[in-house]
Specification:
Blueprint (H helix, E strand, L loop, with lengths): L1 H11 L3 E5 L5 H7 L8 E6 L3 H8 L3 H7 L4 H13 L5 E7 L14 E8 L5 E6 L5 H23 L1
Parallel strand pairs: 1-2, 1-3
Antiparallel strand pairs: 3-4, 4-5
Helix pairs in contact: 1-6
Length: about 160
């Protein structure tokens, strides 16, 4: 699917940025494995800590305190921050709980929030609950969903 995203972005002249937490840069890594990706991948932000989310993406401390790192609000702020701090036309963010620990009753392991920010458009949130899969499975599912969200945005907006 990374090849499809790169091809669609090249065809539509859309530059991409990523803002990743639980995937640790794997989305940007997968995209940049595709030959010719340098024409459409601007940059990737790996913001695993709350401090990185604040410093690199401008996620407000108040957002993190009120809603937590794994929330729709944080995912939206991450995507918008990546868009603002890059030369991209589109930015995908992902933040979640990959486990095996860290889950709560309200936010169990497998909870992942995505957001897609597109220049001139309203940022949209996409939640997912990947259940009690392994850490690797949750991260790979998050990568797959991220690529689908980006591809759909490229196809529908540009």
């Amino acid at each position: 699917m990374a090849e499809e995203v790169i091809a669609a972005a090249r065809y539509k002249n859309a530059m991409i940025a990523t803002a990743e937490s639980c995937t640790g840069g794997l989305i940007a890594g997968l995209l940049t494995e595709v030959p010719g990706s340098s024409a459409v991948v601007d940059r990737g932000f790996v913001t695993y800590s709350n401090e990185a989310k604040q410093e690199m993406l401008g996620v407000p401390l108040e957002t993190l305190q009120a809603f937590g790192a794994v929330s729709p609000q944080t995912a939206i702020a991450m995507a918008e921050g990546a868009l603002e701090r890059s030369h991209a036309h589109i930015a995908i963010s992902v933040t979640g709980i990959a486990g095996p620990g860290g889950g709560t009753k309200d936010k169990p392991v497998g909870t992942v929030h995505f957001a897609i920010a597109v220049k001139g458009q309203v940022t949209t949130h996409h939640p997912a609950a990947f259940g009690h899969e392994t850490r690797d499975q949750i991260r790979y599912n998050a990568i797959g969903k991220s690529l689908k969200i980006v591809l759909n945005a490229i196809d529908s907006v540009f």
